[in-house]
TrEMBL record, chains A, B:
This is Chloride channel protein. Residues 611-675 form the CBS domain. It is found in: Membrane. The lineage of its organism: Eukaryota, Viridiplantae, Streptophyta, Embryophyta, Bryophyta. The chain crosses the membrane at residues 94-118, 138-163, 193-210, 254-277, 289-308, 341-362, 382-403, 471-489, 495-517, 557-574. One of its GO terms (molecular function) is voltage-gated chloride channel activity. The keyword Metal-binding does not apply.
Length: 778, 778
């Protein structure tokens, strides 16, 4: 019965409430025109719209769907709730806690594994290279060095391009989008997890200016999501206990804990992890979640601690020291005065400007190269990665030759922890090609793993280690390389590049300050830390979580007010220019993310303005053929059920039925002979709520899985039992901004729009529904 | 036209969604019976219900109202939004930031002031007492000591009882309730602020086992709320710029920042402050708020730092040292092993049990003494406070005599920072009545300000300072005194008492551990810290914010995993027995707080079940007399406006009009001659949106302010312009749990319940509304 001929009085909203293509790059007028009329809707341009809704970097074009946090109140679920025993509720709680425990342990172990691998591979690379350098075969040293790098990056990029395209990049934009209700398929698949882990080992050990922190957040979320899918029904690897978790609400809770665990593992910052999750999940935060996320990160902290203690006993090869980043700057300068406010403000401004500039250029590069790479195909992507790896190798090996050899400071020539010069794979005063007793300050920056470079920049009591020229050269190279690198087809985090850039100009500011206040309590390492904070604030625009992460990283609480101030200034300055980096990437990837605030033009529109097409609806008992036809011809994910009022005979809204539930019913084939026989049968016991459990993303039934005979198509299906009889509704005159708030605050996917008065044909209620974001055509 | 005779088809919901009197002390069946039928509703028992809705400790019985975060979409506000210029939006933003800046500065200065006052008064008290003791006039010493204490507490209690009854207690339950939408009048008045500041100086300096931290949170919120009222219209102290803040949304944002500033100032924990606000404000958290709260606490941190530096130069009398609590335990034991998990688990369990027991006993004491005191009147309250002060003085002066004098440890006899014995007002090894070279360990606990005691318990490198017997004696006394004290009519925080108890048994556990692991890296100060964490977790049940506050207090990030573990265990254990302390007090005070989760029985009820009375409604143009009559005879805060459909002639919902808006219109007296003349007039420009700005709590217009002549009562009032034409609605078959979620997530006060089908008289829509919590009778 679907279609416009009979349902003309009903109107349908297929409003993509925040169509991604209406991003920041278009003028407001376009947005207004585009909204809900031209872009987000209509089957006609479904494919072109779809093009926007997939991750650009991925090769497998798959539609993005939205998550649904609404409680479906249909008879079957109500029945299930009523009959649920106390022991089953206990099971549910136990399963939830057991899963976050597992997520914590697995994430921490993965993080340890990645670290051990990176440290060993990169360590070996440096040891070999240094060996050749010490025998003065510099060309050979470069060949070994560059060979290592290019090979590692090529492997990472091959994995990314051919096996898990969703694993490219940091993954934080996708995680952020997921946590706020946008389900990008494949983003949490086992393939992606596998590629993300191996790829990030390759790209980090391969010397690229990338970090493994962003990818670790993605890895944590992946682990959580895979666990949350509750095993594989196909392979019989599931369990009755897990059925409780098979819905979007619980699955998202789990992924939130996974993201928190990822941050906690990446930075050894358990509280920072929880806060990161809280700051990103702004749309649907719940108290108990805080509590579970906290537990997860505590587990991570304990496992990491144990693992690191074990590694320190020498079980992990070259990864005994360092490994998981902790840049200890405690014990310095716990007394600072008002004159230190000047450099803090300067750093904040610098961070805001350089950070937002970074975002802007990076976005442009990705938009431009994205289109170009799409045309050229997979090989071009790999070539791009190889070229970047080669450039990075040339820079990091070649540029240190520009620096003069400097004599070691007297007090450091005695052998010890911080002796000068150092010859090994890590260290502060790299000898590089210099004679004994001399060091190359530029090599200490370039010819190191990124983490060691950060450690050198942050190190205390090393005032005057670097020359201005070296720092400026490094700043320029790191900034450009980071811009080039973020966007190629390897897993790549942005925290470390941001810290590198920020710490470098922080140290420059510190040196300038040192010239003014000769006897002041100034340590360049502290300025490096503040610089890093400013760049992170200017680029990523997180505040509280970044602040805590930096505190936990550096173990110095006394710097808190300074870090807060720097973050405040840099974020404010950055916000004047553009959005935060992750928001930009969410836009670029075409993820239909609902921002916290409705766009201003929405307060001038009403919910009615978002309605465009004729409504497609069903009766409580509907002909099977009609249902199949509608499911085939549309891609809506929910349909209103309209019933005739018994007294007035006029149609009224009965409820909302989900496409996925219809498909389950069609698959069961419990059809009726005619439209009116439903009152007699007693089939509620035949369909259990477990059958409606939501499978993992992309694994659900599709209409193509349903095969029906012609006779069956003429039969009828009773759908009133699976209808959500209390969907959220708004009147059509409600401002769109208010409806938007409802969408976001409650995590809805569908919203019925009800007319205020009966304008047409004396029909009193007109219903429509809108979807959070467009479903895809499978 | 209001009333049941004409509006019989409409039904009214006056459902107190979470009636406070249905607290934890009643069986579930009672709750179900009571819900929405017996208690929360009906004018009939309005007074008796009201009795539950006022703070028990207060003497001024005033009704509790709920806050409304819904965007009112009526024509006047729409007009205002449309015409708002860019400069005005900028003004709005500027005012908001300027205010949180002010809140930060004022809160920090107040905190500094309280600290300086407490340190000076208490310091003087101890100096005098010690002077008498050194001349062996012990009786005189006690008289001075007890006299000081009783006087200070009496003053505090007099202020509390006669001037600001709302200032008694910690204030955190009320702040928590306000942030989640419950507006208790007087809780944020200038009187309350004044009494809270002076009273908490008195009670803390008077030696009671109370803290000033809870009161400081209240003080911060008070300052924010008073600022947020935008000056006084009555005294002409207002400004056009401030009108933007005159609504519940912005005012609550400001109070949130104030609460964060209070915590930040109390503990010098800026991040902890933000997290505290986040953890308590679970119902309606918004991203930008985080950002502003963070700014506020950063301001607090900077001001405090400056102030303390100034004090250290000797400008603040005896308050040079200490003052704002920072218990530095950094530099100890950054290496702990798995064997330390045993005492951590033990501490967690102890904390959970002792903490929840504390809550239970405290609740019983308050419930019992509350009823008794109500009968006896104000004098009894003051007497209670005086008696408690006397008992505390006797304990703290008398009990140390039970301890043996112990010889000073050899390495501490040289004069220095931690010399033994100490004679002054503060110190670790108190000489008390002992001969030279000896100290009294019990005096170090009892005969000190609470903060100094905590500092002694936390102090590192003092293993073996205390004897088991002394610690047990102190634990028993502190626990009992804290139970007695919290609930008397003085401002009293619970953080410090909880830390005192927890640190004491933590130190006991540490000493026991010390006997097993003679050479282990164990410091009793660390155990004291973990013990404090466990008691706080077991009693208050906050997790993330407590964790951060403790970290910021003790400046030792390496203890983080241990603190997290302890908090997790103690909270879990505590949750098995009862609610957190603040939740309990919210219940006891009868504050109609909406918990995060709807009560389980609500999922078995529908929105229809919450409807009880006939609906009272208005037409778009209503007779003035009818409006006045309704406003006088009911205490609803909103009324649906029902319009007749033009075609079918049947009533449909037009919108919702607020009582406060009606009162403004009545005051303006722009009446119409007859019901049909409204189409002609053009009065929209005559009423500006600023006139509808919400005044501070308890200051609004009431119906008694309206005086009308008989002629005017027969005229008509056009109310369609002020009607919110898109109120949130639910169908009557929606489960009550789902409607509850809507209330809480969106911060609503009213919710229209719409029928699914037309059952009665062929009328298609039946409207009703419910109120978040009962309005009071003024």
């Amino acid at each position: 019965m679907g279609g416009s001929e009979e349902g003309g009085e009903y109107r349908d909203v297929e409003a993509t409430v925040a169509p991604p293509q209406l991003g920041m790059y278009e003028p407001l007028l376009e947005k207004e025109k585009g909204f809900a009329i031209a872009d987000g809707n209509g089957n006609g341009n479904g494919n072109s719209a779809n093009g926007h809704h997939v991750a650009m970097i991925g090769t497998k074009v798959s539609p993005i769907e939205s998550l649904d946090f609404e409680l479906v109140e249909n008879e079957i679920f109500r029945q299930d709730w009523r009959t649920r025993k106390k022991s089953e509720i206990l099971q549910y709680v136990a399963v939830k806690w057991a899963f976050v425990f597992l997520v914590g342990i697995l994430t921490a172990i993965t993080a340890l594994g990645i670290n051990i691998a990176v440290e060993n591979i990169a360590g070996m690379k440096f040891l070999w290279t240094v060996k050749f350098m010490q025998s003065d075969s510099f060309v050979m040293a470069f060949v070994v060095y560059a060979g290592f790098n290019v090979t590692l990056v090529t492997v990472a990029s091959l994995l990314c391009v051919y096996i898990g395209p969703s694993a490219a990049g940091s993954g934080i934009p996708e995680v952020k989008a997921y946590l706020n209700g946008v389900d990008t398929p494949n983003i949490f698949s086992i393939k992606t997890l596998f590629v993300k882990i191996l790829g990030s080992i390759g790209s980090v050990a391969g010397g690229l200016i990338v970090g493994k922190e962003g990818p670790l957040v993605h890895v944590g979320s992946c682990i959580a999501s895979i666990l949350g899918q509750g095993g594989s029904v196909k392979h019989g690897l599931t369990c009755k206990w897990l059925r409780y978790l098979k819905n979007d609400r619980d699955r998202r809770d789990l992924v939130t804990c996974g993201a928190a665990a990822g941050v906690a593992a990446a930075f050894r910052a358990p509280v920072g992890g929880v806060l990161f999750a809280m700051e990103e999940v702004t749309s649907w935060w719940r108290g108990p979640l805080l509590w579970r996320a906290f537990f997860t990160t505590a587990v991570v902290a304990v496992v990491l601690r144990t693992g690191i203690a074990w590694c320190k006993q020498g079980h992990c090869g070259l990864a005994g020291e360092g490994g998981l980043i902790i840049f200890d700057v405690s014990g310095v300068q716990d007394n600072y005065g008002l004159n230190e406010l000047v450099p803090v403000v300067v750093l904040g401004l610098l961070g805001g400007v350089l950070g937002s500039l970074f975002n802007q250029i990076n976005a442009k590069i990705i938009m431009w190269s994205g289109g170009w790479l799409k045309k050229k195909g997979k090989f071009a992507k790999i070539a791009q990665a190889v070229i970047v790896a080669l450039i990075t190798s040339i820079c990091s090996f070649g540029l240190p030759w520009l620096a003069k050899c400097r004599p070691c400071p007297d007090h450091l020539t005695i052998p010890g922890e911080k002796s000068c010069p150092s010859y090994g794979r890590a260290g502060n005063f790299k000898n590089f090609h210099c004679p004994d007793g001399y060091y190359n300050d530029l090599a200490g920056l370039f010819f190191n793993t990124n983490e060691d470079t950060v450690r050198n920049l942050f190190s205390k009591g090393t005032n005057g280690e670097f020359e201005f020229s070296s720092l400026f050269l490094y700043l320029g190279s790191a900034y450009s390389l980071a811009l080039l690198t973020y966007g190629i087809a390897v897993p790549s985090g942005l925290f470390v590049p941001a810290i590198l850039c920020g710490a470098t100009y922080g140290r420059i500011v510190g040196m300038v300050m040192g010239m003014f206040y000769k006897n002041g309590p100034i340590d360049e390492g502290v300025y490096a830390l503040l610089g890093a904070a400013s760049f992170l604030g200017g680029s990523m625009r997180m505040t509280v979580s970044l602040c805590i992460i930096l505190l936990e990283l550096t173990n110095n609480l006394l710097l808190l007010p300074l870090i807060m101030l720097v973050l405040l200034i840099s974020k404010t300055v950055g916000d004047c220019f553009n959005d935060g980096l992750y928001s930009l990437h969410v836009h670029i990837k075409g993820i239909p993310f609902l921002e916290a605030h409705p766009p201003r033009f929405m307060s001038h529109l009403t919910a009615r303005d978002a309605i465009t097409r004729p409504l497609i609806w069903f009766s409580k008992v509907e002909r099977v053929g009609a249902i199949v036809e509608v499911l085939r011809s549309t891609n809506h994910h929910a349909f209103p059920i309209v019933d005739n009022d018994e007294q007035s005979g006029k149609p009224v809204l009965f409820g909302l039925v989900l496409r996925s539930h219809l498909l389950v019913l069609l698959k069961k084939k419990q059809f009726l002979e005619d439209r009116y026989s439903y009152a007699e049968k007693e089939q509620s016991s035949l369909v259990s709520s477990a059958e409606f459990a939501k499978p993992g993303s992309g694994k659900g039934l599709t209409i193509d899985d349903i095969e029906l005979t012609a006779v069956e198509e003429e039969m009828f299906l009773d759908i009133h039992e699976v209808a959500n009889t209390s969907p959220y509704t708004v009147v059509e005159t409600m401002s769109l901004a208010k409806a938007y708030t409802l969408f976001r605050q409650l995590g809805l996917r569908h919203l019925c729009v009800v007319p205020r008065t009966s304008e047409v044909h004396n029909i009193t209620i007109i219903y429509a529904y809108s979807e959070h974001c467009r479903p895809g055509v499978r």
